[in-house]
Q: What sequence folds into this?
């Protein structure tokens, strides 16, 4: 039988509170937890901003658009 040396550490801090669930709103480096952040619906699709002009110092914006092939005619399709 093997023996293991264990050390018990009492009152251990478990780190800082999680802050990666929302956009920072300013020009600063950040990590973004997957599946977190604001979401909006538009024409039957879900739009999730990943970077807004606030985070990029007014240079650009990046988002994710998710939809389904079952969505009927939307403003993205030609008439």
A:
């Amino acid at each position: 039988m093997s023996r293991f040396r264990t050390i018990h550490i009492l009152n251990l801090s478990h780190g800082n509170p999680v802050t990666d669930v929302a956009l920072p709103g300013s020009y600063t480096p950040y990590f973004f937890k997957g599946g977190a952040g604001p979401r909006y619906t538009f024409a039957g699709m879900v739009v999730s901003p990943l970077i807004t002009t606030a985070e990029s110092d007014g240079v650009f914006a990046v988002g994710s658009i998710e939809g389904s092939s079952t969505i009927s005619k939307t403003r993205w399709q030609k008439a």
User: Anything to note?
Assistant: The chain has no helices and three strands.
